[in-house]
Automatic annotation (TrEMBL):
Domain of life per record: Archaea
Bilayer-crossing regions: none
Organism: Candidatus Nitrosarchaeum limnium BG20
GO molecular function: methylated-DNA-[protein]-cysteine S-methyltransferase activity
Enzyme class: transferase
Domain Methylated-DNA-[protein]-cysteine S-methyltransferase DNA binding: 4-82
Lineage: Archaea, Nitrososphaerota, Nitrososphaeria, Nitrosopumilales, Nitrosopumilaceae
Pfam family, one: DNA_binding_1
The protein, known as: 6-O-methylguanine DNA methyltransferase, DNA binding domain protein
EC number: 2.1.1.63
InterPro entries: MethylDNA_cys_MeTrfase_AS, MethylDNA_cys_MeTrfase_DNA-bd, MethylDNA_cys_MeTrfase_DNAb, WH-like_DNA-bd_sf
Length: 99
DNA sequence: GGTCCGGCACCAT
DNA sequence: GATGGTGCCGGAC
């Protein structure tokens, strides 16, 4: 299976209301330092509707970027019950989904 | 808290 | 093929 496919599949494991980080996701598919690669792959993701790339945030707790805009991403997360303050995830440790 | 550089897959030369 | 630039980052300084 392609690496990107693996990433997408892993990401689908993240339940609604939970999030993960680029680093975690990268490690989950075997890339120790592939955070940036993950970001690029997310940006190129072929199924934007199916792939919940808005559930992936930066390891410092910030929301991070998003192909359709960070506000959109924040809104989506908020709708899923995740609280955000000034672009930062509140109660991060409690929201992170670990594979 | 801001900047810099490392690191990795992808795509266009 | 090989090479260089790039991107929803991360960690160090």
């Amino acid at each position: 299976m392609n690496l990107d496919k693996k990433i997408y599949k892993k990401l689908l494991e993240v339940p609604k209301g939970k999030i993960t980080t680029y680093g975690e996701l990268a490690k989950a598919v075997g890339m120790k330092n592939g955070q940036r690669a993950v970001g690029k792959i997310m940006n190129k993701n072929p199924f934007p509707v199916i792939i919940p790339c808005h559930r992936v945030v930066k390891s410092d707790g910030k929301v991070g970027g998003y192909a359709y805009g960070e506000e959109i991403k924040s809104s989506m997360l908020t709708l899923e019950g995740i609280q955000i303050k000034n672009g930062k995830i509140l109660d991060l440790e409690n929201r992170i989904y670990r594979f």
